[in-house]
Design brief:
With 281 residues, the protein is α/β, with parallel strands linked by helices. Helix content is 38%, strand content 19%.
Length: 281
Amino acid sequence: MESRIWIVGCGDIGLRIAQRLQREGEEPTGVVRSPQSAERLRAAGIAAHRCDLDHETPPANGTVLWLAPPPREGRTDPRIARFVAARPSVARMIYLSTSGVYGDCDGAWIDEDAPMRPKTARAERRVDAERVLAAWVDDAGIDLRVLRVPGIYGPGRLPEARLRAGTPTIAPAQSPFTNRIHADDLAAAALAVLARGRAGRAYNIADGNPTTMADYFQRCARLLGLPEPPALPPEEARAGMSAAMWSFMEESKRLRVDRLRDEIGFRWQYPDLESGLRSCL
């Protein structure tokens, strides 16, 4: 099969990346699971390949951008393990991980050299994937670059349902720090790292202007013309949240993005929530 650019897990962010690649004269192929997702890509003029990553390995070679998440259960990522075991002919690879691999940092500013101390099974699966890939590329001589991504927002990606449901948030003074990246900036950053990143490096992909979780939900409510969520002490707020939702409240960190800015030369279209949220209506 001819070498090309493959985007594995080509959903919203993958489509944004694919369209940018097309404008640069590339012909990427998006790997998706459902016929509906494949049709969505084809309607946008993107080549599509269907693959169930839980049972199959995509025929990806050349350059691979792996955006597909691990399964929702367990503490490992068998999808990545299956891909590596197939020994694909890959030269360069971008892996989209999560800033959750750092765990809770008690609000401290951290860079990519901070230790990985995942606090949730969700983050443990990402750490497993990073380690499996690191061992593989060392053995096979593959150029791997890892993107550690926090919360993604953008048009169609705001917490409207949660705000309409009146789900509480933690009072501002006690609210954890949270990091964000606009969907368009994430797509642009992925391609910037692909073009100018260093092999074996991880990059924090955030806007560099973290705020608290309470601030984010309050801003979204005002933007959407909805009531601001109840701001409660932590234990009272926890009673109104699912376990999964609460897990995000138990981690507080502020991501440094010096490596993305200074090493890659990246410039954000939306460098903070004020500018980014305005684009979401």
